[in-house]
Design a protein that fits this description.
Blueprint (H helix, E strand, L loop, with lengths): L1 E6 L2 H11 L6 E6 L9 E2 L7 H10 L4 E4 L2 H5 L2 H7 L3 E2 L8 H4 L1 H11 L6 E4 L2 H11 L3 E5 L8 E4 L2 H13 L10 E5 L4 E10 L3 E9 L2 E3 L3 E4 L4 E4 L6 H21 L5 E11 L2 E8 L6 H7 L5 H10 L13 E9 L11 E2 L2 H5 L4 E5 L2 E3 L5 E3 L3 E9 L2 H14 L5 E2 L6 H4 L9
Parallel strand pairs: 1-2, 1-4, 2-3, 4-5
Antiparallel strand pairs: 6-9, 7-8, 7-9, 10-11, 10-15, 11-14, 12-13, 14-17, 15-16, 17-22, 17-23, 18-21, 19-22, 20-21
The structure holds adenosine monophosphate and glycine.
Length: about 425
């Protein structure tokens, strides 16, 4: 098979690494890729949103399967464009990608399919939204309806904060048209976990559960990020809970999407709150998470490539997707200044040494290589350093041993990845 992966982060490096291991692969490209994907794929200098050029490239090179990593090209309709050119693309159509592209759309699917979720109301008018917030009081959650680069959600502890969010989103239009309408929600309380399923429009297969660490600093302090670390499985989410969530959340969503004539194909990522009343949906994403993908793929026993093909062919019900009974934990190393103003250009050494440790995989994101191979920071999130082990504690120790083997004084990471599962002062290191 001739395969094109789209994107340039740690998620896409992990996808390339996993696909490259398939005996079915004959040629792999990644657009635009990074120095990590270049080890498994030929990088193609085309942006993830340059859809016309990507379709032309895939046609010219007889690509059999396109695997988009990020949400933006999916929401922009890359699957539709590829299919119109006769190329199979493992992701949702533009219509199905509305599960991530629009909060209102997701809420309507939840209501139609009786999927447990926070009570909600949608507003197109800022004054009506303000009146609603004053009536309901805090805590309350305000969400820009459209995509806002992960920044469009405000969990407001006070009424003041919620009103400020309405002002920023609807009056000032901080996120442009994404804030033309907002969803205001009941605030859910509990542990947050993510569930990942590969879907073929009808059937779904579990890819695993994970937990992310959104804040930049230890103890969940500081600004919001794309994610500073992750691990799988999420121990507070037992296999029986995973199964229940597949039945009550993933399957009903697939059925409702199919009923509407917009079946969902690809990776469905359900952000869940484990409340006293059971798991409730916070949001859907229509792709793998980053850095969740990196750890999920480390637990995948089955060949990823035929699994993705089965999702495209509507054959998942006959596909036995297996996971190793192990754990994986990933630590994001970021450039100093991330998430506000990451410093570029510093030299990163020791990745080979770290990668040589047993159970370690280092995935690249914002890196760039000089002509002589010197590796430099070229983005905010720069590496995802992953460890695997029989237990989460063991995976933690492996990952941090690898972090310690990397020589990059201008980089930083959280030292407490996994604390919800392992305890706040987890130190499993044996020295
Ligand atoms: P989202 O961008 O939808 O993932 O939301 C960002 C974060 O806001 C989530 O990961 C949750 O921590 C939090 N959040 C979103 N909706 C709610 C809710 N209804 N109740 C409590 N927390 C929420
Ligand atoms: N790590 C969260 C995300 O990819 O959306």
């Amino acid at each position: 098979m001739r395969v094109l992966v789209i994107g340039s982060g740690g998620r896409e490096h992990a996808l390339c690494w996993s696909i490259a291991a398939s005996p079915l692969l004959t040629k792999l490209w990644c657009a635009p890729g990074n120095p990590g994907t270049a080890r498994h794929a030929e990088n193609v200098p085309l942006g993830a949103l340059d859809i016309a050029a990507l379709v032309a490239f895939a046609s010219d090179n007889s690509v059999d399967l396109v695997v988009p990593g990020p949400e933006a090209p999916l929401v922009a309709g890359i699957t539709d464009a590829m299919e119109a050119a006769g190329i199979t693309c493992c992701g949702p159509s533009r219509a199905a990608a509305q599960l991530e592209g629009s909060k209102t759309f997701t809420k309507e699917i939840c209501d139609a399919a009786s999927i447990p979720t926070a009570l909600w109301e949608r507003f197109d008018d800022a004054d009506a939204a303000r009146a609603f917030i004053r009536r309901r009081g805090a805590p309350i959650v305000v969400k820009a309806d459209g995509l806002a680069a992960g920044k469009g959600v405000v969990v407001a502890a006070t009424e003041q904060e919620a009103l400020a969010a309405i002002n920023a989103m609807m009056d000032v239009r901080l996120f442009g048209d994404a804030g033309a309408s907002v969803v205001i929600e009941e605030c859910l309380v509990g542990n947050e976990v993510s569930l990942f399923a590969l879907c073929d429009g009808e059937a779904a297969r579990l890819l695993g559960s994970a937990q992310d660490h959104k804040r930049v600093g230890d103890g969940d302090s500081g600004g919001n990020t794309g994610g500073m670390g992750s691990y799988t499985p999420a121990p507070m989410f037992a296999p029986a809970h995973e199964q229940a969530a597949m039945e009550r959340i993933i399957q009903p969503a697939l059925s409702e999407m199919a009923r509407r004539g917009t079946p969902f194909r690809g990776v469905l990522y359900a952000g869940l709150m484990l409340t006293d009343e059971g798991a409730k949906l916070i949001e859907f994403n229509v792709r793998f998470g980053d850095p969740e993908c990196q750890v999920l793929l480390l637990r995948l026993m089955s060949d990823l490539l035929p699994a993705l093909q089965a999702a495209c062919d509507g054959e998942l019900k006959n596909f036995d997707l297996r996971l190793y009974d192990t754990a994986a934990l990933g630590v994001v190393m970021a450039a100093r200044g991330y998430p506000d103003a990451p410093q570029r250009g510093s030299i990163i050494r020791g990745i080979e040494r770290a990668s040589a440790l047993p159970g370690v995989q280092v995935f690249h994101a914002g890196t760039a290589a000089d002509a002589d191979g010197t590796l430099r920071a070229a983005g905010g999130r720069v590496l995802t350093v992953c460890g695997t082990g029989r237990t989460l504690g063991a995976a933690h120790d492996v990952a941090y041993a690898a972090v310690n083997a990397i020589d990059w004084p201008e980089g930083f990471c959280r030292r407490d990845i996994g604390w919800r599962a392992l305890g706040p002062h987890a130190d499993h290191s044996t020295g």
